[in-house]
Design brief:
2 domains; alpha+beta; globular; 13 strands; binds calcium ion
């Protein structure tokens, strides 16, 4: 009788724990970042390989960010935050300097991407950068230096960002993000620290669930081991 109660208790404990989802968080630093500029004299210049890159109003510059998500293959992603580091603000703006974050629709090369070409000898379809899906429009660079969240989402709020990163983790085509400011504000730049200057300046913070079958399997094994030991 005592043994049966013990077994029942353990079973309930296993079921209870198995239903509780375990969430872990990984910080992934960008493995490629660059910028470009549509001014005639700079259309063939690549920015962000040591000297930083920046954004200006009204889409005249874009930023390119890539993250390797392969370490999260098989994980169920529940939330994502994209963060960059602002190191210079030209002048304050009343709307907080919003940025739109898209997926890139084509591959680009960190050391050769510019306004015309996405890699040496290969033009963008649309000069400046081929935009994919808009994955966030609620981030901002603000009016001060420091780490800024330029995109965020979870399963209930802005799930498109979570789905995008999940797809990348699962091995889908990953051309990274393109970011730009789309509002007209005269003479107001924001400089972003590139990874060559600080490898931890730009990051993707990803929360994910621990796969339940593995957790349950470990728990059951542990319980069986304990019960055998008790005999
Ligand atoms: Ca770079």
């Amino acid at each position: 009788m005592k043994k049966n109660l013990l077994g029942l208790g353990l079973m309930l404990m296993v079921c209870g724990i198995a239903q509780a989802t375990i969430i872990e968080t990984a910080t992934i630093y960008c493995d490629a970042d660059a910028g470009n500029y549509d001014a005639t004299a700079y259309q063939s210049t690549t920015f962000g390989n040591g000297g930083g890159w920046n954004l200006v109003p009204n889409k005249h510059k874009k930023g390119f960010l890539h993250f390797d998500l392969s370490s999260l293959a098989g994980k169920t992603i529940t939330s994502v935050q994209l963060m960059v580091t602002v190191n210079w603000t030209q002048s304050p703006v009343s709307n907080g300097y919003p940025v739109n974050v898209y997926t890139a629709a084509a591959a680009w090369d960190e050391s050769t991407v510019d306004w015309i070409e996405r890699m040496a000898g290969v033009n963008w379809t649309t000069a400046g950068g081929d935009l994919g899906t808009l994955v966030c429009s609620s981030g901002a660079l603000g009016n001060s230096n420091g780490v800024k969240i330029i995109a965020s989402g979870d399963e209930t709020t802005n799930n498109i960002l979570v789905q995008t990163v999940q797809n990348w983790a699962n091995g889908g085509a990953n051309y990274g993000f393109i970011i730009q400011n789309e509002t007209v504000i005269a003479s107001s730049q924001r400089a972003i620290t590139d990874r060559e200057t600080n490898p931890m300046a730009t990051s993707l913070v990803v929360s994910y669930e621990i796969p339940e079958p593995a957790t349950l399997g470990l728990l059951v094994s542990g319980v069986l081991f304990m019960m055998r030991k008790k005999k």
